[in-house]
Amino acid sequence: MAYDLQEQEQLDSLKSFWKQYGGMIMAVTSAAIIALVASQAWRHYQDSRAQAASTEYTALEQALQKNDQAKAKEFSGRLASEYSKTPYAARAALLEAKQAFDKDDLKTATAKLSWVVENAVEPEIKDVARLRLAAVQLDQKQFDAALKALDAAPVDAFSSQFAEMKGDVLLAQGKKADAAKAYQHALNKLEKTAPGYQLVQMKLDALGDVK
Fold first, then answer.
1. What pLDDT digit, counting tens, does each position of 147-164 carry?
2. Is residue 145 within 8 Å of 172, Cβ to Cβ?
3. Statement to judge: residues 85 and 137 lie in one domain
4. C-alpha distances in Å from residue 171, one per residue of 41, 106, 129, 168, 207
5. pTM, two decimal places
6. How far is CA 162 from the centre of its chain?
7. 70 with 100, same domain?
8. Which among 159, 152, 158 is positioned nearest to 124, based on CA atoms?
9. Measured between alpha carbons, how far is 129 from 133 in angstroms, rounded to an integer?
10. Which domain holds residue 65?
11. Which H or E run includes 59?
12. What confidence score (pLDDT) does residue 70 get?
């Protein structure tokens, strides 16, 4: 009988607790379930968009290989407008920038590279665009713009290339001492066996003893 009484007291206590906190528990549980479902739905949505963007990018590559400019413009435009938050949009713009540069269309190349700098979601792709943009601007003697493109610190993998490009721009401005410092910085970031080390060393040696 004592056991039955204890059991009844526990049951009454549970009922009282559930009456007081049951609504809140149900609300929290429902919110957690909704959040989980929403998270899974969002991941599925992102995956499906990435797959669609990948398909568009492949189609763009094929159009460029066939020199079908109309199709290439269609695919790149759709990537920029509908899939700008995916990596493929920036990569597509890089392809177009290279094609424009090869045709000496520096205005289009600059516009495409600037778009990548502003919109790329991958830091490495953004840095590739900044390097190429600086090279295009250097080619047009837009020295201040080129230095501005190189201003922000890149990811480590591109630090030597950024320093070398900065040296090229400074040398074109006639600032030999500053160019030498930039080339030396580039060398400091490279192993002596690394590709490009000898070229940077030659650029530095060609400056002679500058102060």
1. 999 998 899 999 999 999
2. no
3. yes
4. 54, 22, 21, 5, 9
5. 0.72
6. 16
7. yes
8. 158
9. 6
10. 52-142
11. helix 2-65
12. 83
